[in-house]
Amino acid sequence: MSRSVRMICVAGMAMSAQVAFAQEAAPAEAVQKVQITGSRLLSPSAESPTPLQILTSADIAASGAVNLQDLLQKNPTIGTPSLSRTNSNFLTSGGGVSTVNLRNLGDSRTLVLVNGRRFVSGVPGDTAVDLNTIPVDFIERVELLTGGASATYGSDAVAGVVNIILKRNFEGVTVDASTGKSDKNDDFKKKLAITFGTTSADGGSNIMGHFGYSKQGSVMSKDRPGLGAAIDQYSLAEAVTGDVRDIFKTTAPFYSSFAPQGRFFYGSGSASYTYDKSGKEIGWSTNGNATLPASGFNRSEYRTIAVPTERYLFATNGTLKLNDNHNAFFEGTYAQTKVDTNIEPFALDSANIFRPSGVVQGETMVNGVAVRNPIIPQYLWDKMTDTDGDGLKDYRFTRRLAEFGPRHSTVNRGTMRLATGLKGTLPFTNDWNYEAFVSYGRTTESQASTGQINIVNMRSALAGVPNPDPGGGVMCADVQARRDGCVPVNIFGLGTISPEALKYITAPGSLETALTQKSAGGTISGELPWGLPAGKIGLAAGYEWRSEDSSAVPDPLTQAGLNAGNATPPTYGSFIVREEFVETRVPLLKDVFLAKNLDFRGSFRHGDYTTVGSTNSWNAGMEWAPVSDIKFRGTRAVSTRAPNINELYQAPSQDFPSVSDPCEGVTATGTDKLSVNCRAAPGVAANIAENGGVFTLVQADLQGVSGYNRGNPNLKAEKGRSSTIGVVITPTSIPMLSKFTFTADYFNIKISDAIVGTPRQFALQQCYTGDTFYCQYITRRATKEGSNSPGSIKYSDTSQENSGGLGTKGIDLTASWADKVGPGRLNAKIAYTYLKTLWNVPTQGADQDESAGELESPRNKAVLNLAYKWGNFGISTSTTYTGRVSLDDQFLNTYENPELAPKIGAYVTTDFQFTYDVKKNYQLYFGMDNAFDKKAPPVVTGLPGNTTGTETDASAYDPIGRRYYVGLRVSL
Predict the structure, then answer these.
(1) CA contacts within 13 A on the Cβ side of 55
(2) For residue 880, what are the β-bridge partners?
(3) How far apart are CA 282 and CA 267, in angstroms?
(4) For 821-864, how does the pLDDT look when each residue is reduced to its tens digit (9 = 90+)?
(5) Is the separation of the CB atoms in 486 and 461 below 8 Å?
(6) Is the Cβ–Cβ distance between 640 and 665 less than 8 Å?
(7) Cα–Cα distance measured from residue 551 to residue 559, given in angstroms and rounded to the nearest whole number
(8) What is the 3-state secondary structure (H, E, C) of 796-859?
(9) What is the largest CA-CA distance in the chain?
(10) How many beta carbons lie within 10 A of that of residue 494, not counting itself?
(11) How many angstroms separate the CA atoms of 899 and 893, rounded?
């Protein structure tokens, strides 16, 4: 029993001195049966049959984190999250959400539980939980279970489970307040947390409450020149040299060709001009040359590296003793999160308004006579011709809508969850337990955005004619438009759009989303009256019902595609699942030669979904301890994951991916498959003819790729097969090693029919060199559109498909030690993961694509935690190591000699926290994150993995730099 308690304390990440004493806290006889993550059975042993790591409340306190994601990301079993403060600024939905991704198999394959039960998602249409909604100061511990656990918990536990255990039986009041900022004087942080509770005199009933407030400020791209994020730049290899050795070098400035003063095209070719700051007409040069200043626009001036996030959190739980055998319980959580995202003003192309040609008529027929728009400057009028054959002079333009201000979104996200139920001992039994619960969760998001344009109104505003009224001037040509308040717009030059015209053509945006989760279930567990010589057989069985529905409704203009983007219809979806499950533990041997104990564990779950039909999951495992100090464990599991609502029903959602066009450089005479297929694509042949026989992309083409993500209602459930084999060594019988605990676990997870978004670069390669099926995801410009060349990629789309598979395998190692050293006590823990392989097969029958050792999936990751407590003083450190990586091989293979590509070196950061106990119930603390100000490596614009605005991969590396915080904890 005492060994079990010791395992709980040292198997996790607990590094604070306070936690170290927990292993001595209770004698063996005080230990009650416990339930561990990965099992529904109560057991006298707190040791997990599967790999389990534990983070305690003391670990959270020692990290200074205001968001659980910040701490979880240091664990080497955790991959890069899909959503965080530093990678969601450019998303049309989900800004500021914080998710978790076990084994780099995807957020949706990591099941997040609270007190062993599902928590409502923070992403409409998905199952990913927003960790912003979990108050860190209300957490007792977090258990990380890696490996398939669908048989125990249902769908989504393919990669594993993150089980957040909230505090219970809390007595008194604790206040924790802190503030901090980065050494660049941004990323301001404030936190206030108050936790309180009381217990009845007999100890049978209790209630707890928590209030939390936190605010994390923004980090702007312009304030990080050290990353190169302050000015637009691009990979030198992608933009200029084509030499793979230059991929991490940059060409700068690499401004946007959409400028606030406008760029105006005339004639049938690409001739254009712009205006200087004084309003004089000059030739166009995006980045400047020997004779012309730079005409382009620095988007980085507006971009955000970390989005500001403000949270209010309320949580409560309690137990009411009904009698000696029955208790009622309840849990309640409410989180209100406000997030602001900010990107550069809208880049308007006349092709957005007059699709697809982009031709703007400079004249309007009035009573059979062509009347010139008086706003058009004489300089342009003299150069204009009729390019579309309608007899009227025309032009094309691009313009950054600086008068609109930045594209800004304010997101208000609310998450509520209530759960209640009964638990206790079944009548007429002594050790058969039951638990029944119902829960309700709902997440809503209201998003208001600015900076978009109403293209219907813009069409009217661009068609101006002289006003015959005495006052003269210009009026809109269309009579009905004038009745509706039309104001002519002047787009020629910097700051020329009047406030009245701006009001008429502005299109405020909105997005309303909601996700509702309802669930109910019951479990009975106990031991059969008969048993084996080694002990009684444990058994648990239960039933669960769950309903989820989700909606995402954009504003009417967005739905109709009338704000310069593609039409985005609403997304609606729902499903219901009913599941039955059973679990057993069979003690085979105990206290015999070479078998201190030998147990078998097994579980099975059957589910019925209204979307994909029946699913089955199972788990079988063995635990063998030949002696007290060594235990071997192994499991084999089959897990299932049904597609979520977004994967099934998501309407096209716009994205801005970085891709490399495989057709670039193709010639008019090439006979290889790539050349032939590229020349057959829309616009490519015309581009080749215009550029001397070579397909050529200009800067606007490289920066002008968009794309849409969409669902697939024909998906089927995916099935994961996982195997884990491990050993736990607690050498208490060896004096020199008695304070150590070692674990080693091998994991192997294979997912068939994995649901994935078709990789964009893969689709591009396949379209022109392999399977033409993938050409459906590529849209090229058939003709010149504004500043974009014919044949350039306009949209690179992706949809959800049942792929050929996904998998990973590797080794986890941990070592823990705690003992008195000198006048104080030292605690040490290291966790290391070696990733042997991480692969996917993008489509049925395709070749396996290996990504272990590539960006976001390093082969080697580790974290070392040290803590020393001496009297009233304490210090704790956390050092994380991310191994050397390369870029995606699909991308590198677009170059000659991809083996010459440089790699990203190992990345190490260290955090510190110092504490001082002023008196028994008062503790001051001071911390530094990324104390040595380790700069993030350059994953620059144009490279896969680049997070727009950061010039690095902000999901994998720290783009902010050194940060400080100071705080006070008070317990009353």
Answers:
(1) 27
(2) 863, 909
(3) 17
(4) 999 999 999 999 999 999 998 877 778 889 999 999 999 999 99
(5) yes
(6) no
(7) 14
(8) ECEEEEECCEEEEEEEEEEEEEEEEECCEEEEEEEEEEEEEEEEEECCCCCCCEECCCECCECC
(9) 110
(10) 18
(11) 9
Residue identified by tokens 């079993």 is: 77
Token couple for 609: 């979904």
Spatial contact of 728 and 816, defined as CB atoms under 8 Å apart = no
* Cα–Cα distance, 349 to 719 (Å, whole number): 45
pTM for this one?
Answer: 0.89
Smallest CA-to-CA distance from 200 within 320, 332, 325, 323 is with 320
Q: Which two structure tokens, joined as six digits, stand for 645?
A: 């609502």
Instruction: Decide which of 565 and 194 is more confident.
Output: 194
CA distance 223 to 187: 11
**Residue 617 CA to chain centroid, in angstroms?**
27
DSSP 795: E
DSSP H or E stretch at residue 459: helix 455-462
Predicted confidence (pLDDT) at residue 4 exceeds the cutoff of 60: no
- What average pLDDT does range 79-101 have in this prediction? 92
Query: How far is it, in rounded angstroms, from Cα 531 to Cα 589?
Result: 12
Map tokens 């464990």 to a residue: 633
The first and second tokens of residue 738, run together, are: 């008695």
Contact 388, 271 (CB under 8 A): no
CA torsion 110→412→797→795, rounded to 10°?
Answer: -150
H-assigned helices in 824-957 = 889-892
What is the per-residue pLDDT across 140-181, written as a single tens digit (0 to 9) for each? Answer: 999 999 888 889 999 899 999 999 999 988 899 999 999 999
- Which residue's entry shows tokens 């040290």? 866
The dihedrals phi and psi of 838, each to the nearest 5 degrees, come to -140, 110
Alpha helices in 275-432 (DSSP H): 350-353, 378-381
Look at the block and give the residue holding tokens 């605010």.
215
**SS3 category, 900:** helix
Give the Cα separation of 935 and 579 in Å (integer).
49
Task: Identify the burial level of 229 via C-beta atoms within 10 angstroms of its C-beta, where 0-12 means exposed, 13-18 middle and 19 or more buried.
Answer: buried
Residue 108, CA distances (Å) to 72, 158, 303, 640, 643 in order? 16, 9, 28, 12, 9
DSSP H or E segment with residue 8: helix 2-11
Q: Kindly state the tokens that stand for 793.
A: 């990629």
Give per-residue pLDDT as tens, 400-458: 999 999 999 999 999 999 999 999 999 888 789 999 999 999 999 999 999 999 999 99
Token pair belonging to 633: 């464990």
The residue count of the chain comes to 972
Alpha carbon distance 938, 951 (integer Å): 6
Is the pLDDT reported for residue 23 higher than 70?
Answer: no
Nearest to 105 by CA among 81, 73, 132: 81
Eight-state DSSP code of residue 196: E
Cβ 127 vs Cβ 75: under 8 Å:
no
Which secondary structure element, helix H or strand E, spans residue 766, and what is its range?
Answer: helix 760-769
The residue written with tokens 């988007």 in the block is 299
Residue 340 near residue 411 (C-beta atoms within 8 A): yes
What residue ranges in 155-277 does DSSP mark as E strands? 160-166, 172-182, 189-199, 206-216, 219-220, 234-235, 250-251, 263-265, 272-275
The amino acid occupying position 708 is Y
Strands 798-802 and 793-796: unpaired
Coil, strand or helix: which one is 138? helix
Tokens read off for 700: 């606007």
The residue written with tokens 């490279």 in the block is 943
Sign, CA dihedral 258-259-265-270, equals negative
**Taking phi first (over 0 means left), then psi (-120 to 50 degrees means alpha), and beta for anything else, what does residue 168 get?**
beta
The closest alpha carbon to 435, from 545, 524, 543, belongs to: 524
